[in-house]
Backbone:
């Protein structure tokens, strides 16, 4: 008798080989974020409140700041920013590893919600939001610039699928520069998950 692959659960079922010498298998493919949420309960939405900012040329309003305090890596799955403005584009800036500015030094907690409703795990990091009073980010490296278009229901969605990684101590901030003299309503959401690479 040749080599056999047998079910390890005690059912005595064996793997079937087709006439083309291929093993018959079924596979389930799911996104990494789904697996982490389902199995580990370590996926989170980070949300701002509904904010209103008033534009001034060259002035950025701090919208959201996150930092990883976990020993596990924080993977950013996606970012969504909704905004409404009547006349001109709103500029969105993303900053890598900021450490200073009133968005950080005078914190207002953002909401952090586990997306597995059956999990009691909590977000292992910092999450701060702006309040429409020109909270600042004064350092960090720019790593993204985006426009939000004209109209009342514009959305900027960045689907990173986990390729943006914040190791322990790393951080990210979002700011917005509204059109000069205009009020802009804005809200932001980031979906993240935590996972060890060991």
Residues:
């Amino acid at each position: 008798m040749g080599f056999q692959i047998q079910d390890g659960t005690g059912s005595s079922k064996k793997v079937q080989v087709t006439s083309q010498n291929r093993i018959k298998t079924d596979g389930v493919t799911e996104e990494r974020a789904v697996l982490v949420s389902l199995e580990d309960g370590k996926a989170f939405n980070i949300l701002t409140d509904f904010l209103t900012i008033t534009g001034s040329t060259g002035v950025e309003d701090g919208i959201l700041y996150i930092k990883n305090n976990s020993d596990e890596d924080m993977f950013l799955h996606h970012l969504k920013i909704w905004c409404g403005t009547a006349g001109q584009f709103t500029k969105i800036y993303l900053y890598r590893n900021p450490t200073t500015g009133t968005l950080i030094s005078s914190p207002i907690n953002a909401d952090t919600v586990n997306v597995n409703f059956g999990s009691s795990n909590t977000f292992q990091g910092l999450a701060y939001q702006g309040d429409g009073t020109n909270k600042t980010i004064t350092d960090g490296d720019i790593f993204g610039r985006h426009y939000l278009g004209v109209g009342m229901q514009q959305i900027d969605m960045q689907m990173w699928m986990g390729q943006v990684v914040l190791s322990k101590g790393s951080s990210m901030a979002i700011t917005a520069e509204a059109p000069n003299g205009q009020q802009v309503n804005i809200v932001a959401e980031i979906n993240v998950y935590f996972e060890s690479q060991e």
Observations:
- Residues 32-40 form the longest helix (9 residues).
- Helices lie at 32-40, 102-105.
- The chain has a mean pLDDT of 90.
- The two ends are 39 Å apart (CA to CA).
